[in-house]
Amino acid sequence: MVCGKTPVTLPLDNYFKEREDSPKDETGEYDYERLDALDLELLEDNLTRILAGEEVTTPVYNFIKGKKEPGKVIKLKPSDVLIMEGIHGLNDHILSMLPENSRYGIFVSPLTGICIDPHNRTSTSDNRLLRRIIRDYRTRGKSAQVTLEVYPKVIRGAKKYIFPYRSRANAIFNSSLPYELGVLKPYVEPLLHTVDENSSVFSEALRLLNILRFVPALNNDGIPNNSVIREFIGGSCLDV
Predict the structure, then answer these.
(1) Which residues does 65 contact at the CB level (< 8 Å), separation at least 6?
(2) What pTM was estimated for this model as a whole?
């Protein structure tokens, strides 16, 4: 915006197929990590028309109902920059929908490196998991237990569908913040305490709670409303 450009966002999460049409894994559970979990035909149609300068009504995905609903209308102006965001953004199939000479890929990940004692450090995977537990509860109606149960599939999907395409990026952006564990703690601790002690993921909830014991809780009052952490805890001035 400082350079006179207006960002226009197109989240790929809004292009998930209707829940009943979503692909399933070998156990019969819905697999939302696969590329074909997206309605690729609709995405390509919308992208082609948007890039041609047409006015397009894009979908917004209702994660509670598992259905797409009418979302915002996009019509690119000469000063606009289209920002596509999603875990499959660097996939060859997605990139092929965009003109090669006018695209720029950024791989975004919280590359955490915070030591909690002389022998242990928080991992990138744990950082992503804590963010996801809060986001899933706040925006998708999922309990911490459900998020913990599906997280191994998320990691498996990332290794198969996301990390192999890092080399397609023009740049890598570290989205972790030095203070974020302290900010996330008051939000995620109560959610972790709701995990049933008879659940298969109870030990994982305890492990995360033990990590958080070493982290001082921080008030979120001083967090800017355009901070990336606002995507998870709420209060963002951005459309996330």
Answers:
(1) 19
(2) 0.81
